[in-house]
Amino acid sequence: MNVPDRAVPQQTSLHAAPTPAARTAAFFDLDKTIIAKSSTLVFSKPFYDQGLLNARAVLKSGCAELIFLLSGAKHDPLDRMRTHMANMCTGWDVAQVRSIVNERLHDIVAPLVFTEAADLIAAHKRSGRDVVVVSASGEDIVEPIARTLGATHAMATRLVVEKGRYTGEVAFHCYGERKVQAIRELAARESYRLEHCYGYSDSITDLPMLEAVGHPSVVNPGRGLRKEAAERGWPALTFSRPVFDR
Model's pTM, two decimal places? Predict the structure, then answer.
């Protein structure tokens, strides 16, 4: 049983890595930064096919995707939708969810990965940096995606589980300031010097994360984040090409 812990995040190491004297990392938001859509909502159809969602819930998920795309992941609509999604999965079998995600990862998520993001991740790895995916989506979706991308660590929202099923409660919401908390704890454990680390996000809600690293960049930013980036002299990157368009 996972006991709700609203203060302490968990991190998942995806690959073993050597420990050099001075280590740095590149922190990437996931949705609309590495992939073109919401990592949670793209699994609505396979969850429906496996009997986890009904037609009404799928329709609501589709509406949520539209809100996500139009809002630029602004705080209130997306936060409310994540709470709704957590409640909606109450009683779901965790093993079944993980199986669906792993089985459908290649055909659902891989086509949504931005080529520019994949190339940037590869460049950071060649430079000897760890790559960390930090997402407000659920860990059972984020971790397999991060592993496929070759990330070193994944940090994500953690749901409470009892007897192998989700209770609908959120143990740790990896969002806003809590993303920064998770990053700082990981940096302390892995000896990253954050002033030499990199950060990438599309969302104004990740402003605290971008402020926490020495080399922040915004990706496909909305108006608010673009304005912040211009005022602070941060690079603004445009990611548009899916990997399968190469």
Answer: 0.82
